Sequence to fold (324 residues):
Amino acid sequence: MVSSRKLSSDEVEALIDGLQDQPATAGVGSSVSEDNVRPFDFRSDDLSLLGDYYALRMLNERFARAARSVFLPMIRIQPRISSFPPEVKTFDEYTSGIEAFMSLTTNRVDELRGNLLIVIDPNFVSLLTNSYYGGNITKVENTRTEFTATEERVIEIISNGLSRGLEVCWKDLIPITLNVHSRETNPQFASFVDSSDLVIICSFVVQLPNVDAATFDIIYPLQTLKPIASQLRSRVQTESGPDDISWRDRLELAVLEVPLKLTARLCQLPVSVKKLIHLQENDVFPIQVGDGVEVRVEDKPIFLGEIGEVGGNSAINIKERLKA
Fold:
């Protein structure tokens, strides 16, 4: 029999004191080590906990294929471009791992109210410039601290091409428009984000014959991608994007060109076999036209009309559409 007596206040206090004096246990006979406990502030806004950037990885793989057309006119061969999984670092950690002389192009993304950064190795820029103007694809050691006017033009062509490719690849996730904000050669002078801000680094490697592989990076501020974090984690792409107008128009034109058989039936009357056997030229069948002429499309009654004349030719005037 279960007792229904409630604990007194003294008994409750004694029970609480006993629980406070007893060490916490993680299981039977095992205690939790303080080394395994990590403090966490639930009021914090840790953007690095966005999870797996599955959609961004798929976007990068698509962009790697699209970027081939940007480098093809310069190196005159189809390069093989691969993407690495996105990494999250502070911008200071990223810049400490690259050279002080790089090609840095900042683009404004109005739809996300933020920026993205395209980073290209200067040796890769020199290789593309040499090949673009008729030279061979050879290893170039760049010890200078500034680009020539020709190299700056090549950087402009590359960055614009990569920006257009990004716009096409992002279209399935969210339509974006990239506009060049600034170009720098020193990461310390790039007005991109603060050094302590977290960024997502998307690296791409370009494999070329007879030379070492070259790389370029696309950098997104984590704060910029926060509004679409759920879409970046999604493994299913939404189908609520804009319609393919050109495809729809072509389909509509193709459907409108399908030929259909149109017939008009004045009446329907029974005829005996005897009359058909003795039927001769100039014989007349008396008929009675009802409320109108039945217009049939592919042998299905669709409209009801009446006989008339247009320009000296017999015609049928459509009066109403028949109910299915």
